[in-house]
UniProtKB/TrEMBL annotation:
InterPro entries hit by this protein: CCDC15
Top-level taxonomy: Eukaryota, Metazoa, Chordata, Craniata, Vertebrata
Protein name per its UniProtKB record: Coiled-coil domain-containing protein 15
Keyword Transferase: no
Coiled-coil region list: 170-229
Gene source species: Dicentrarchus labrax
Amino acid sequence: MSAGGAAQQRATESSFQESSGGMRQVRLRLAACRMIPHGEMTSDLPGGEWNVSPSRHKSRSHVLRAEQEEEEEEEEEEQGDDHLFTSHHDCPLVQQKLSGWSDPALSDPGFQSSLRGQRVLWPLTDQEELKRQRQSQFLMHRRLYMNIEREQVKENKQHRKHLKRTARIKAEKEQIRVEEERKLERVRQLAEARQKLEERELLILERLKLEEEERAEELQRRKREEKGKVAARFIEALRAQMKERLSQEKLDLPPLCCCASSFWDSHPDTCANNCVFHNNPKAYAKALHSTMLSLDLH
């Protein structure tokens, strides 16, 4: 490699490190300006259609290869960059010229393979570049907004679905709660009705029991009254019989108890509380009957 090629390589590398973007456009424009006119393409120089020596062509191809590798690395790092330039002719005018080329030298297979092997990058004009950048930015923002809108629509749909599901679950829970409350209310009402019925039955039973006790007491009272009446009649009959007997025999008997002054003063209704005949007509009748038997024996 010659000294000139090495110097050019170092200059190119340093300038590329300073400004990779500017170097790219400058290199593309210089490459476009380096196109050889039609008359020089069939030159007999050793360099072929570029008019350079083999050693110089080798060094320049090495530099271009290094630049292309660095550009590929840069393009891999910049994932969102729009490709403004391609390896083919993007200029419609250049494509028209190449397609309408009427030189008979193009029919040469070797020349056509040489042209296919060495494609030249053509830069776009500033207005077209700005227009394409704006269009690409517009499309990128449009895709971004469309993605955002789709995500929002999806989120809104999921949110509405979640709200419907939540409302359905709440309605089901509320219905279950209402049914449970109704069931508990029915159970409570049945319990209250049963309790009232039991209380009513208890009241009826107590009233019947009291009525039965009252009837029993009334019956006993009547029986006691009847017995008292019978005893009183029996005592009165004995007293009358004793009076008649004593009047016939003209006898005077002593008092039957200590609380009486005479025989006839002793009576169950008039005797003292500590007397044996007090409210005891049976004992008084027995005493009268014994007295009468003793009189019969005499």
